[in-house]
Each structure stands twice: as C-alpha cells, then as structure tokens.
Amino acid sequence: MKFIDRFFERSTRHVAYSTSRRNALVKFGSWVVVGTALPLILPVDRSSGNAHAAESGTPGDPGDPQSCDYWRYCSIDGFLCTCCGGTINACPPGTDVSEVTWVGTCHNPADGRDYIIAYNDCCGKQACGQCACNRNDSEQPLYRPFNNNDINWCLGAEHMTYNCTIATIRGVAS
Amino acid sequence: MTGRTPFAAALVLAMGLLMAGAGFAQSLPGPHNRPAPGNEAQATPPRDAGYRPQVNYQLECSGCHRVDGQGSRANDVPRMKDFVGHFLEVEGGREFLVRVPGVSQSSFTDAQLASLMNWMLTSHIAGDSTPDHFVPYTAEEVADLRATPLDEIDTTRDVLLQRMRDQQIAIRDGLADRP
Lengths: 174, 179
Prior knowledge:
The complex is a heterodimer of chains A (174) and B (179). Chain A has 2 helices and 8 strands. With 174 residues, chain A is an alpha+beta fold. In chain A, the strands form 3 sheets. Chain A has a 3-stranded antiparallel beta sheet, with no helix packed on it. The longest helix of chain A is centred in the first third of the chain and has 21 residues, at 21-41. Chain A is rod-shaped and about 110 Å long. Chain B is mainly α and 179 residues long. Chain B has a domain at 48-166: Cytochrome Bc1 Complex, Chain D, domain 2 (Orthogonal Bundle). Chain B is built from 9 helices and no strands. The radius of gyration of chain B is 26 Å and the shape is globular. The A-B interface holds A 62-63, 67-71, 74-75, 99-109, 112, 114, 116, 118, 129, 131-135, 137-138, 140, 144, 146-147, 155-158, 170-171, 173-174 and B 25-29, 33-39, 41-43, 45-46, 49, 51-52, 55, 58-64, 66-67, 72, 74-75, 77, 102, 105-107. Chain B: Residues 1-25 form the signal peptide. Chain B: InterPro entries: Cyt_c-like_dom_sf (IPR036909).
C-alpha cells in the first residue's frame, strides 16, 4: 500500500511541477474556441436549396428564372429582369412597365401545356446588361409586329430607354 | 525604352481587362444552354394551332389593345372596351372593323378571324356597345373585306366617329384629346 501511495504522490507532484494552471487554462480555452467554431469550419451545404432551383423551382413552374433556359423565356429577346433587381412578373425599382408589348406561347414542362406569355419591357433606366437572353420559339417576322421581339416595346412608355424584360403568364393557350 | 515598357505592359493589361469584360456580356443561349423540355422546337404559329378565339385575341391583339381592350392612350391605340360595338351602328362601320390593318393583316384564316370578331363583339370587350341585332360575321364576308384594305385609316375613322356623334353616341375611344 505504501508503494501505491508513493507512486501516486510522485506522479501527481510531477504533473504539478511540469504543468502550469495558466497553461492548462489556455489549452482548455483554445479547445473550447475550436469546438465552438467547428460547425462553422466543417463543409456544410449552405446553398439551402438554391443549387436545386434549376431542377425544381416552384411546383408547376419549374426552372430557374435567372437562367436563359427557364421555360417562360422560350421567345424572349433582352436582359432578364430577374437578374436586374426585378422579378419574373415585376419591373426593377425605378423602371416602368411598357403598356404595349408582344405576346407569345411557351411549353410548360410541368404540365405539358402551352401557356400565353407576355414579354413586357421595363423602361426608364439604362440597359441592365445582365443575363442577356435571346430565344425565338414563337416569334414571327417584323411585319407582324404583335408577334415580334426585336422591337423596343418601350416606344410608348413615358421613358423610352430599355432596361430589361419580364415574362408574365396570361393564361393557357388551347 | 525603359520608360516605355511599363506603359506597354499597362496597355496590354488594360486590353485584356476590356476583353474579359466583353466576355461577360456575351449573349445567351450559349453552347451550354438547353431550352426547357418541350421548347426545343419552334412553336406552332397561332394560325396553325387551332386556338380558341379568346386565345387568338391574346396572341395578336392584346399586346397593344390590352387584355380587356382598354387600349393605350400613350401609344395612340384606341380603346375598344365598351365602345367598339358602336361601329356596327353606323354606315361603313361593320366593314371598317375588318379592314383595319391589325385585323386584315393578322396571320389568321378568314374563318378564324370571323370567330375572333364575333367573340370580341359579344364578350366583355365590346360589353353593351354591340347592338342587339348584331349579325355574326361569316368567313366569306371577312375574306371579301380583307381583300380591300383601308387606304386612309384615320380619315375613314373620323368620318365614322362623326356619324356616331350625329346619332348621339358618346365617343369613348380613349383618344379624345389626341392632337
């Protein structure tokens, strides 16, 4: 028993001599810091669904409205307002929607139906310059102006400067 | 020469930056873009798609006359809402409605146009302005009228509006203060 007693006394004294409380606190503290920060350092999927927007979007309206591949853009010619501070249905702040426009049709992959799409231009600020997109699936030549997307439809707006284009659904084409 | 080298380097750098900027402004679709499923091919033209008259109205009329026929004063597009039917009450008005450029030069067949006109004149667009004794257009009638387009559109229109005034019909075409 005396042997065990001496063994523990010596080893305890050795630890007490070779370490300091301050050092131990420092080391403990750094582990606390690292431990707290660990979840932030680990590779976590922070996209929270954005990465899948290209596949899903909203049910019935699939795709990424900031991509030229989005189904409603099948006949668009211009800058996408979704990249310019606006939405798929609304102009960016500081611009006005053109009263007149042209209207085409696009195929919605979600339900397999064709929809009537109005491509109103947003007007009153300089060209947005983001997400230029030009597809002409349901466009017709300029001599049918009501089906042509080469026209600057800001021609009748208060300010004729073209900024970007939205794509609103007007109904089902059938 | 030593003084020129940094200048030349700066010039090359500046041009490189300019070209990089031009690369960002490229027009899409690019080689990696794919149309949404079902949109790979050209859409069927409205004339061949066999849509309902109200859909045909949307595709070739509503862009300027607007969905409910309000028209656009800023663009000199006449208002049809609750007014267009009054043209049927004056001499030459029935013919005028088909001979105007938007109708006669649309892509539709004579039969499609007749259906479109009959729908428009009996829908919410014409509202109560269409007379009760309205006789629907036929494809043959539309064919004859399209064959003789209007030469003097505004002049013809002014004559018709005057005939309406003579019948005490209020002119609500949205263009009253037109210069």
